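Dear Dr. K.,

Following up on our conversation at the group meeting, I've run the structure prediction for Dynein regulatory complex protein 12 from Exaiptasia diaphana. I'm pasting the input sequence below exactly as I used it, so you can double-check it against your construct before we proceed with anything downstream. Let me know if the numbering doesn't match what you have in your notebook.
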Amino acid sequence: MPPKKKKGKGKKKKKKDEKTELTVEDKYKRTLQEIECLRDELASRTEITRRAKDTASRMKDRMLEAKEAVETEQQNKLDISSDLTRQYKTMQSEMALRIHMLEQTVTKLRDNLAKSEEELRKTKKEFEDMKKEKDQTIAELKFKIEHMESVYESILHDAFDKLSLRVEEARGKWQSQAMEVQEKNKQLLLEFGLNPLEI
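The predicted structure tokens came back this morning:
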């Protein structure tokens, strides 16, 4: 019985060695397979990495473009804000200057209005005084004229009466002288043998 067991043990050892050799070959193949898989995975990872780098590069470019766009927009906004601020300050200065000029104009116009009102008041007073003086002068002249008319009327009546008296006196004298002349002429005609009634 024991020898058989030894033989059996020897056979088992041989099988174990064969199995060990297969395992090494399998390991070699497996290693090759693993290397191939690793190569494939490395290639895949490399491609993924390349794509990721490309994507990252594109994203970086986009980010840079976006950053530049944002900076440009901010600069534009800053320029617009600065321009608006400058325009506002300019407009504010112009408005302040215009308001100042308008205030000066209003003050000047008020002074001119006050002077005009004072001149108007003086002119009105002078006109009223002149009118009063004129009315008074007219009243005085009217009174004088009425008085003079009365005086002249009295003088004219007296003169007319005196003239009438003188005319009557002269008429009487003329009539007396005419009668004397007629009488003398009558005598002369009679002396010449003429009849005065026939002439």
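Two things stood out to me. The longest helix spans residues 2-191. The chain is about 95% helix and 0% strand.

Best regards,
J.T.
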